[in-house]
């Protein structure tokens, strides 16, 4: 069944009718409770996702209460909407849907009966009509019934007495405003007003009272629907003095009359709809349209039944006694009117009341005995569930029967006043009992809601439901939370009065639950959406318990609030866990960075001194080799010295690599091109027992890196992967574009967000344990046997990546291989070309010249001077920056090149150059260094220690040639 909530009043009758019909036929009923389609309130529209759960997977036939669901979209819109459920059999209630059978009520004849009653019983001739929403088919039929009654009684139709069709909802305030406008434009008020619904009748009474008209004394009012008990008796209805809107207030208007109205046969329509749905499933023939009769219910608003405010006599045919009536027929009417509760009263009670009242009317006995018996029977019937109002019609019959059979009605009329007072007391006691009962029930629901809303997680919510649902008499409750689009997870499974553990896996929402309902008898379930104004949370399935439908709506709203709170709480917990994890990672990375920096400072200092030594060793060995003949017996020893010096220089470069102090020469690289060039070398390096796969797609961005160091990264990682796969495996090398955000983490702290290219090296080797992964980038750490590894391979990779401004991440698990991801930055473009070091400034000096040599290490200075002088250069030497500054001032016009160390005592090379240029001197500059520093070198040429004579002389010639 599809309907719009809340399931109170008319909607509750509709639901119970379908429920009773399904149960009688041995069928299960699942009622999907949403809201009106295309409702203007976005929050209410969210409720309609519950209709998306309807599927042939669990549903065999569908009952659609079209005026509840489709009132805002009309019959055409509803026709289009239900196509989504084809080919499921459909029964429509109130509005026809294509080829499907329709159950409707006789709206036209029902309103005709009400207006006939005003004309025939009360003699009303000037009757106004308040029309309903123009999209409501039943409202149009009721207007036609009003017109039929006027025409049949020869009363002219007056358009001034008919309001315009209302908006899309049955809002009493709309009727209040419509009646106010109608009374303002006509000279004489009507005798009576018929409203298209009881909601509108409430608004009519409110407008009349505001303008000083009494109901029914001045203007009689009739409604339609018969759901005024909640609207008027329990809540009352008042109109504000400053605004046009009418408002409900609890017990604020006890004098509002109970409406004479037309009872809509919603229960019978629902019951019949269930029968037709089963017939469709079974393939049995059904009638295209069936109309259910309505019933006129007479109360006080038309002028019938005494109200305590006047002497209105009963006037409806059902309250008449014919001349042939006997004491037996009057007693039967008493029993029939009370219905089942009459069984609880003493045998012969009805006959005894007739006899006692007749005797009291003749003066044979005191009327006190009759009143005593009546009070006892009213209390007894109330305990059996009888409403005091059920006593009115038979007591009127009894009063008329006795009055017609006695000569003096004085005594009986006096006694009749006491009967009215007695019944008035019964009404008051019943109202107090209902009020207290409702308050107690409301309190129970409020307490349950407070418990549910306070739940901090699913476990607390589950426990709260297990304790509170029995208090609400709800036998089963199943809470589902949306997972991914089209799927959900079961959070709570409460059935047969106990909790059960639901399956944890997600399931398609069209299955409603991940498990079957196992019931020995047909069950009735309501499915309601769980949502907030921000999100769709899931849905809840209630197994029918208490009759008042508002209880389910209240629990539904409380569950929505609880799930929202739980979700927010979980998001906070997850955010805190992520923050703690990130803080932990950051602390670990900081400790690692501090340790690496300490090692770097130590290693850098050693490498600087070692490079100075190697510069002397390698430079002198090369100079000796150039001056030694090929057959000289000393040549072999000199070559060994040079080879040892080169090995020592390579070791120094490795030390500087992992401390990020080696000199890099970054440029814009096409990684695909560079990696393709080393494919054959990589193939040889890893061996034939390992399958090498390289995925190098076109269109990947260029990177800003040192080409030689990128190759070093790849070779070091490949060697590690090879050693992890002694029995063979697969080594995959791939590249791809990647954007790093502020929340992305890796092994290096402080990496800037932006565009990167990831070089991914993945193997199928043995993998690493977590403790190994924590130390894998530390220098000298190795898992290889002594003598088989230096522990510098991955630390060198780490240093190169960090010095290149990139990021590195390692993922591994024992038995699952290892993946290392290296992120290299994408160069910024300026005028369409990658941003690269600026070209050196041109000068006009050419040819051999004078070199100012600044070096704090005496041996390096002597060797370098000798090499320069042999090559024909004039050399001015200084041991530090201060001394060089003095010499430069003295030889300002003759110095062509400043060749200076970067780091020196007293004054370093960069500071020396800045001071020279501040004086106006502009010689060419070339730096010498064994490692990088934080000094800004102004894009000058840098030669790396240790260097040999040939490299030195070549670089000096290049610099002077560019400066020429």
Account of the protein in words:
This protein has 27 helices and 33 strands. Strands 1, 2, 14, 15, 16, 17, 18 and 19 form an eight-stranded mixed β-sheet that branches. A five-stranded mixed β-sheet has the order 21-23-24-26-25, covered by helices on one side. The longest helix is centred in the middle third of the chain and has 77 residues, at 550-626. The protein is elongated, with a radius of gyration of 49 Å.
Structural descriptors:
964 residues; eight-stranded mixed β-sheet; 44% helix; five-stranded mixed β-sheet; 17% strand; alpha/beta
How do the helices and strands line up, and which of them pair or pack?
Blueprint: E1 2-4, H1 9-24, E2 29-34, H2 42-46, E3 62-65, H3 66-69, H4 74-81, E4 90-93, E5 102-105, H5 107-120, E6 127-130, H6 137-152, H7 172-185, E7 192-195, H8 198-210, E8 220-222, H9 228-234, E9 238-239, E10 246-247, E11 261-263, H10 266-282, E12 289-292, E13 295-297, H11 327-338, H12 349-361, H13 367-383, H14 392-403, H15 410-453, H16 458-468, E14 476-482, E15 487-495, E16 498-500, E17 507-508, E18 524-531, E19 536-543, H17 550-626, H18 635-658, E20 667-669, H19 671-677, H20 679-686, E21 690-695, E22 703-705, H21 707-724, E23 729-740, E24 754-763, H22 770-775, H23 793-803, E25 807-812, E26 818-825, E27 829-830, E28 833-834, E29 850-854, H24 858-870, E30 874-878, H25 881-890, E31 895-901, H26 909-918, E32 924-929, E33 941-944, H27 949-963
Parallel strand pairs: 1-2, 2-18, 3-4, 4-5, 5-12, 6-7, 7-8, 21-23, 29-30, 29-31, 31-32, 32-33
Antiparallel strand pairs: 9-10, 11-13, 14-15, 14-19, 15-16, 15-17, 18-19, 20-22, 23-24, 24-26, 25-26, 27-28
């Amino acid at each position: 069944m599809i309907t719009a909530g809340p399931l109170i009043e008319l909607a509750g009758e509709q639901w119970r009718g379908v429920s009773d019909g399904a149960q009688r036929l041995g069928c299960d009923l699942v009622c999907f409770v949403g809201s009106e389609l295309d409702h203007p309130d976005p929050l209410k529209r969210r409720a309609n996702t519950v209709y998306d759960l309807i599927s042939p997977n669990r549903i065999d036939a569908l009952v659609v209460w079209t005026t509840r669901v489709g009132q805002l979209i009309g019959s055409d819109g509803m026709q289009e909407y239900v196509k989504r459920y084809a080919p499921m059999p459909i029964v429509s209630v109130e509005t026809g849907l294509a080829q499907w059978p329709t159950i409707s009520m006789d709206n036209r004849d029902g309103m005709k009966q009400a207006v006939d009653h005003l004309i025939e019983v009360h003699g009303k001739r000037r009757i106004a009509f308040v029309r309903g929403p123009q999209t409501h088919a039943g409202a149009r039929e009721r207007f036609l019934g009003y017109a039929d009654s006027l025409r049949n009684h020869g009363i002219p139709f007056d358009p001034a007495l008919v309001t315009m069709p209302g908006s899309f909802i049955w809002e009493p305030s709309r009727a209040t405003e419509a009646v106010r406008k109608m009374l303002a434009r006509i000279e004489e008020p009507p005798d009576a007003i018929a409203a298209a619904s009881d909601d509108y009748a409430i608004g009519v009474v409110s407008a009349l009272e505001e303008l000083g008209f009494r109901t029914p004394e001045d203007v009689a009012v009739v409604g339609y629907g018969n759901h005024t008990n909640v609207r008027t008796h329990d809540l009352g209805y008042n109109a504000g003095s400053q605004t046009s809107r009418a408002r409900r207030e609890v017990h604020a208007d006890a004098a509002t009359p109970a409406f004479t109205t037309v009872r809509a046969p919603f229960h019978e329509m629902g019951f019949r709809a269930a029968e037709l749905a089963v017939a469709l499933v079974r393939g049995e023939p059904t009638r295209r349209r069936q109309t259910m009769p309505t019933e006129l219910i007479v109360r006080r608003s038309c002028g019938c039944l005494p109200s305590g405010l006047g002497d209105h006599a009963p006037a409806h045919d059902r309250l008449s006694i014919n001349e042939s009536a006997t004491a037996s027929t009057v007693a039967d009417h008493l029993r029939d009117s009370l219905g089942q509760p009459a069984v609880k009263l003493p045998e012969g009670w009805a006959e005894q009341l007739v006899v006692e009242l007749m005797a009291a009317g003749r003066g044979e006995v005191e009327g006190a005995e009759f009143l005593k018996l009546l009070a006892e029977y009213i209390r007894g019937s109330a305990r059996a569930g009888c409403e005091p109002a059920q006593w009115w019609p038979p007591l009127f019959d009894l009063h008329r029967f006795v009055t017609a059979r006695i000569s003096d009605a004085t005594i009986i009329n006096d006694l009749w006043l006491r009967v009215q007072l007695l019944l008035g007391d019964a009404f008051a006691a019943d109202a107090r009992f209902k009020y207290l009962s409702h308050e107690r029930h409301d309190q129970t629901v409020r307490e349950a809601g407070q418990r549910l809303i306070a739940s901090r997680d699913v476990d607390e919510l589950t426990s709260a439901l297990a304790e509170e649902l029995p208090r609400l008499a709800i036998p089963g409750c199943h809470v589902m939370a949306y997972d991914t689009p089209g799927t959900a997870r079961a959070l709570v499974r409460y059935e047969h009065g106990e909790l059960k553990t639901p399956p944890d896996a997600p399931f398609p929402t069209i299955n409603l639950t991940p498990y079957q309902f196992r019931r020995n008898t047909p069950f009735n379930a309501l499915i309601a959406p769980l949502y907030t104004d921000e999100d769709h949370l899931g849905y809840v399935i209630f197994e029918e318990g208490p009759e008042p439908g508002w209880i389910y709506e209240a629990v539904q709203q409380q569950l929505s609030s609880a799930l929202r709170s739980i979700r927010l709480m979980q998001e906070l917990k997850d955010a805190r866990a992520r923050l703690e994890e990130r803080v932990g990672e950051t602390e670990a990375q900081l400790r690692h960075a501090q340790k690496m920096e300490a090692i770097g400072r130590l290693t850098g200092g050693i490498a600087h001194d070692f490079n100075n030594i190697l510069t002397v060793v390698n430079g002198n060995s090369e100079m000796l080799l150039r001056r030694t003949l090929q057959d000289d017996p000393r040549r072999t020893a000199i070559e060994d010295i040079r080879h040892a010096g080169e090995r020592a220089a390579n070791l120094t470069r490795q030390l500087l690599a992992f401390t990020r102090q080696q000199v890099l020469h970054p440029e814009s690289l096409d990684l695909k091109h560079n990696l393709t060039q080393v494919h054959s070398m990589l193939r040889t390096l890893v061996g034939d027992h390992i399958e090498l796969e390289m995925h190098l797609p076109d269109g990947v961005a260029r990177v800003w890196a040192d080409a030689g160091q990128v190759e070093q990264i790849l070779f070091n990682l490949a060697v590690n992967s090879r050693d992890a796969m002694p029995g063979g495996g697969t080594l995959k090398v791939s590249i791809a574009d990647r954007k790093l955000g502020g929340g992305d983490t890796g092994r290096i702290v402080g990496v800037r967000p932006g565009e990167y290219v990831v070089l991914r090296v993945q193997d199928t080797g043995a993998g690493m344990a977590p403790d190994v992964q924590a130390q894998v980038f530390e220098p000298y750490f190795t898992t290889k046997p002594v003598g088989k590894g230096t522990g510098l391979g991955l630390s060198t990779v780490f240093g190169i990546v960090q010095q290149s401004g990139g990021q590195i991440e390692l993922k591994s698990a024992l038995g699952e291989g290892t993946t290392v991801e290296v992120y290299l930055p994408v160069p910024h473009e300026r005028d369409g070309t990658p941003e690269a070091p600026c070209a050196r400034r041109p000068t006009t000096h050419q040819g051999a010249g004078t070199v100012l040599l600044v070096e704090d290490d005496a041996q390096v200075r002597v060797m370098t001077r000798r090499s320069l002088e042999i090559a024909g250069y004039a050399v001015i030497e200084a041991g530090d920056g201060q001394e060089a500054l003095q010499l430069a001032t003295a030889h300002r016009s003759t110095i062509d090149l400043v060749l200076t160390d970067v780091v020196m005592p007293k004054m370093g090379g960069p500071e020396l150059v800045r001071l020279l240029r501040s004086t106006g001197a502009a010689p060419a500059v070339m730096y010498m260094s064994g490692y990088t520093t934080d000094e800004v070198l102004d894009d000058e040429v840098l030669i790396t220690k240790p260097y040999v004579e040939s490299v030195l002389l070549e670089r000096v010639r290049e610099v002077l040639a560019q400066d020429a």
